[in-house]
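Each letter names a residue; the fold follows as tokens. Both lines appear below:
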Amino acid sequence: MSHVGVICPNAPGHLNPMIALADAIRTRGHRVTFFLLGDPPESVTAAGFEIVPLGGGIFPPDEYRAGFQQLGSLQGRAALKHTFAMSARAAEAMLDIGPTAARTAGATALLVDQASFPGGTVADELGIPFATVCNALLLHPDSAVPPFFTHWQPQDTRWARVRNQIAWAGLNRLYAPILTQIQNRRRRLGLPIPARIAAAWSDRLQISQQPEAFEFPRRELPKHVRFVGPLRLPGGYRPVPFPWDRLDGRPLIYASLGTLQNRVAGTFRVIAEACNGLDAQLVISTGHGIAPEALGELPGHPVVVSYAPQLDLLRRSAAAVTHAGLNTVLDALATGIPIVAIPITNEQPGTAARVAWVGAGKAITYKHLTPQTLRAAVVHVLSDPSYRAAAERVRNSIQAGGGAPRAAEMIEQNLGLNH
């Protein structure tokens, strides 16, 4: 039996798919342990996995928690810079504590989230194989593809490629403090030194939970990238209480800003104002970012909960309004419903751009978000059947990808896991 370690950001958008993948690997007869910064998440322990802390005195749990709380109130470039600052601190802790923690636990292979940049160096220091798992959008640089933090569509023109290259270069400056830490560590260990952050990812296997139909055309994607679609537990998410008796039979519009960028309270009011008067019932999930009662009386009296049974509601919905977090978007597409995306920061603009590019919905930049623009977009996707048809095409790609069971099979084969 192999002992697989998991390194990923301690945030639901990364943890939930990793738990599903870990469960699929455990089902194949292997032991799995999570190595995490921050407070031990209940979702991991409830799934029956051991957690080994990584933060130590370098990035203590209370500071890690405070960093995510601050992120929830930021937008745009400020949120992006804050995310990279947190990643640099996480890299320091991971490189200092990770190798000893993984060695002591007896890990024989690692699964490393693409955003946990030093995880591959931990594996290389121990001489064990690792696979990269892309739980957010693919971060691979490519002059044909706009960077993940932009709302741009791909265009096969020289000026668009130049624009993309300039933006990727700007992103490299944000990566620099993290890459420098990785390079210095590997230099001391006598390991090959990556010239760019993409070289820190696995050269054996990279798993993406995007379906292949939900990625821009690329020129420079490594051959060992595999699209498997959403990583989900066989029974979906754990049951969540919900006031089902409050649903009145009208078509549902499900709205969520995820679990990180969800403290911008005014956005929930804009969503309620936009949907007020439509022949539909609005359900809002605040993602534990804001207590429902703190929003006060919202226009149209939507159902507001702190956390919702997302997939169950999406299956009953006519459309989704979302911040364009990848997991929420994939859940909506898996049910074949159209989307109105209002990205706030990080990779959300890139996810929203893909929603628009595949024709499965409309995207509104945050600075242009008003009740009027949002209402027009919601009415458009509800009234034009082409959006649902496009969402259903992506749903078919999701079903063909194989999800967590297929990813676990690939990991077992490529990392040489032993029973």
Notes: The chain has two domains: 3-229+402-415, 244-399.
